[in-house]
């Protein structure tokens, strides 16, 4: 792609929180290559806040229904794009692009590699790459910088706040059971961290309310800051944390974007899929000795082997030791 010859680009990534945050280095790279280029973005209503205040984007279009409305298609046609970058590459995104009659560059999903690794345990990934790099490869010649993800609020880019308070954010939620560290472990972790003079915040969205309450109620003095999917509120609360402990989830990528040092716990998924913390201070806990990993590339509702050793063997003391080590090295 010769970005200097392009005037307008539309990026399509409909979901979800983490996937959209992972597009931000690509957006930044395009802008660095051509500061005059107009970049628009199409997403779904549930994730509009992820892009709402991104200063590098002009128009933020929302797919309000399962299928694109005539009004949306007309608005997109009116822009007369030079290029569409389809980072979703599914039935819905293809339906939209088919109606726009514009040059399209699509994200090539490594579905065969995922299938072989999940089902046959054949690892054909030559190296571990971030999804950011997969996205960038959709645009020939695009050069990524060494910076990380970005998240913007009305006040500008949200970043970690320097504070003397030793606050640790706990993010226990995830969409799938096999990507969730047991709540009992989170409770043990938080309770033991109190002895090291840390304060505990529990963070999550509307789907995490029950588990966040259970954990916060069992950790003396813990503050439950689970919200009704108020992303800006969650980001502000997270920015005050010294560290974040989380699962492989959207909030892991939010912590990456805010530059909060984080400790991520991977169960049924693996780093080869590309969804690990990107260009930020982090440590990933996973259990490579569990040979049935990965059992899915997105997660499952239960452990297919019934033992759940990929998570149960990652004990709270392992994470506490790493937190203390990182804290003492600062």
Q: Could you characterize what this model shows?
A:
This protein is of the alpha/beta class. The chain contains 13 helices and 13 strands. It has helices at 17-21, 24-33, 48-51, 70-79, 91-98, 111-120, 131-136, 183-194, 209-218, 231-239, 250-258, 309-312, 316-329, and strands at residues 8-12, 38-43, 60-62, 83-86, 104-106, 152-153, 156-157, 167-171, 199-202, 223-224, 243-247, 262-265, 282-285. It is globular, with a radius of gyration of 20 Å.
Given the structure, what is the number of helices? 13
Shape estimate:
globular
- Estimate the mean pLDDT confidence: 96
Radius of gyration: 20 Å
Share of β-strand residues: 5-15%
Stretches where pLDDT is under 50 for at least 5 consecutive residues are none
Described by strand count, sense and barrel closure, the largest sheet is: 6 strands, parallel
Distance between the termini: 42 Å
How many E-type strands? 13
Percent of residues in helices comes to 25-40%
CATH superfamily of the largest domain: Glycogen Phosphorylase B
**N-to-C order of helices and strands:** EHHEHEHEHEHHEEEHEHEHEHEEHH
Q: What spatial order of strands do you see in the largest sheet?
A: 10-9-8-11-12-13
Overall structural domain count: 2
- Alpha-beta content class: alpha/beta
């Amino acid at each position: 792609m010769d970005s200097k010859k392009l005037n307008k680009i539309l990026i399509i990534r409909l979901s979800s929180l983490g996937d959209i945050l992972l597009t931000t280095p690509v957006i930044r790279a395009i802008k660095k290559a051509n500061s005059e280029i107009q970049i628009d973005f199409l997403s779904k209503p549930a994730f509009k806040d992820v892009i709402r205040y991104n200063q590098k984007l002009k128009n933020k279009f929302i797919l309000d229904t399962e299928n694109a409305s005539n009004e949306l298609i007309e608005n997109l046609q009116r822009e007369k794009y030079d290029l569409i970058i389809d980072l979703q590459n599914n039935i819905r995104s293809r339906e939209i692009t088919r109606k726009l009659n514009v040059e399209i560059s699509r994200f090539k999903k490594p579905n065969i590699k995922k299938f072989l690794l999940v089902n046959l345990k054949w690892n054909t990934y030559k190296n571990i790459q971030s999804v950011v790099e997969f996205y960038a490869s959709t645009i020939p010649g695009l050069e990524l910088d060494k910076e990380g993800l970005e998240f913007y609020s009305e006040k500008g880019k949200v970043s970690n706040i320097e504070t003397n308070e030793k606050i640790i954010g706990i993010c226990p939620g995830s969409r799938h059971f096999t990507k969730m560290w047991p709540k009992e472990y989170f409770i043990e972790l938080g309770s033991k961290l109190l002895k090291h003079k840390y304060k505990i915040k529990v963070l999550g969205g509307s789907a995490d309310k029950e588990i966040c309450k259970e954990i916060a109620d069992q950790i003396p003095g813990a503050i439950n800051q689970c919200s009704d999917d108020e992303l800006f509120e969650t980001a502000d609360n997270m920015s005050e944390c010294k560290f974040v402990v989380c699962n492989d989830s959207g909030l892991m990528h939010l912590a990456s974007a805010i530059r909060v040092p984080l400790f991520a716990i991977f169960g049924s998924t693996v780093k080869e899929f590309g969804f690990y913390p990107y260009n930020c201070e982090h440590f990933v806990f996973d259990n490579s000795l569990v040979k049935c990993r990965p059992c899915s590339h997105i997660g499952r509702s239960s452990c297919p082997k019934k033992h759940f050793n990929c998570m149960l063997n990652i004990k709270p003391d392992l994470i506490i030791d790493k937190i203390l080590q990182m804290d003492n090295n600062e």
